Amino acid sequence: MHKLCSHLNHNKEKNKWRLELKFNLLLCQSPGLLDDLSQTCKMGSPNGRPMQKSDDEVPFGSEINFHQSESILVDEHGSHSGESETSQTLWGIIYRSIKVVVFSNRLNLLMPFGPLAILVQKLTAHHGWVFALSLLGIMPLAERLGYATEQLAFYTGDTVGGLLNATFGNATELIISLYALKSGMTRVVQLSLLGSILSNMLLVLGCAFLCGGIVFPKKEQVFNKATASVNSGLLLMAVMGILFPAVLHYTHTEVHVGKSELSLSRFSSCVMLGAYAAYLFFQLKSQRNLYISVNEEEGQNGHNTNDDESPDISKWESIIWLSVMTVWISILSEYLVGAIEGASTAWDIPIAFISVILLPIVGNAAEHASAIMFAMKDKLDISLGVAIGSSTQISMFVIPFCVVIGWIMGHPMDLNFQLFETAALFLTVIVVAFMLQEGTANYFKGLMLILCYLIVAASFYVHVDSPQ
């Protein structure tokens, strides 16, 4: 026992000697440090008196004071390294962001197919391969677009998050439509936008309901019925705007043959644009409380369903990635559209089927992926905002906007989508409106919507698009 005590005392004296040596060396490097430390100790003690420590506390206190004084020296003599540390921090943020967004999903292994499609187009111009490679290249980009929007939804809320997802998801369709409209391909614009509406309302929403119901089989998922009712009303208004020019054309009741139909389309388009602008004001400003999602209401009542969830990237990182993905998807979509006719000939598939079914599936891949992800996390209001909100945006904004832009560009486009296409749109809106009226979702409703889409797809496969 006596040997153990002497050994401990020897170690304590040895540690004191080492710390005193380090402290003396530090004082030699900074002569004014002793006054600063004494002043600091007086400020930290009650009534300005020096704090007393027992012998057992000296090594730890001395070590703490040594590190504090070392940090003071770094601040005094090492401030010149601030710029390099800032630069390293910036590159670290960029590296971490790329690692999280690009290298965190196995589906991103398909990304090289996008540049490969461009290379094949430049070297061989084989439209069938260009179409297939562009299709594969867009899929991971669309999924990452949905991921970035999901991250941004943490900062904006469910309502604005769904609106942003619908907007970025429809940016591809809008760019493709303007490009085709400039080339005089008005029928391709009509069919592709119609197909986007059908795909969002039946396939995307159906898959979201189905996957959400499989993940939560013991309960019915709920969403805000007020939001669904307003969107259903806007879709019915869009059907009205598209229906009357077609009826006017096929009943031959125009006052001025060939002109009344176009004039009515332009007037209806302006009205629809005004209605959509009023809807945005109503949703985001005037009646904002009406559009609080079920998850947000539970959070306000103290029942937080997402305690374990937090964003992986910052708000500005999400915005930057959304912009990058949208631009890259738009570039690949242009090659995809340019290869439609060649792919139709090579694969012996009608152009109408490619325009209405295949092309919108690719264009809506962003909405498809994000709607399923949100539904599987029981955030059905965002899924509804993505699927139905995207359909509403296309029907009430993108289509009328293309009519007005075509009017300005000298490429007239009307709202006469022909009887077969208009009937398909009308029945789709009616079916979806009945599915949404209860404010609940389950896997069976999703299955019915998917089966309805299969019927629509089969109908367009055997349909020959007759010239107007």
Automatic annotation (TrEMBL):
Residue intervals passing through the bilayer: 193-216, 228-251, 263-282, 319-340, 346-363, 384-409, 415-436, 443-464
Superkingdom of origin organism: Eukaryota
Gene3D superfamilies: NCX, central ion-binding region
GO biological process: intracellular calcium ion homeostasis
Coiled coil region boundaries: none
Pfam families assigned to the protein according to its UniProt record, in alphabetical order: Na_Ca_ex
Assigned GO CC terms: plant-type vacuole membrane
Gene Ontology MF: a single term: calcium:proton antiporter activity
Membrane-topology annotation of the record: Multi-pass membrane protein
Residue ranges constituting the Sodium/calcium exchanger membrane region domain according to the UniProt record: 128-284, 318-460
Keywords, ordered alphabetically: Antiport, Calcium, Calcium transport, Ion transport, Membrane, Transmembrane, Transmembrane helix, Transport, Vacuole
Free-text function comment from the UniProt entry: Vacuolar cation/proton exchanger (CAX). Translocates Ca(2+) and other metal ions into vacuoles using the proton gradient formed by H(+)-ATPase and H(+)-pyrophosphatase.
Protein name as catalogued: Vacuolar cation/proton exchanger
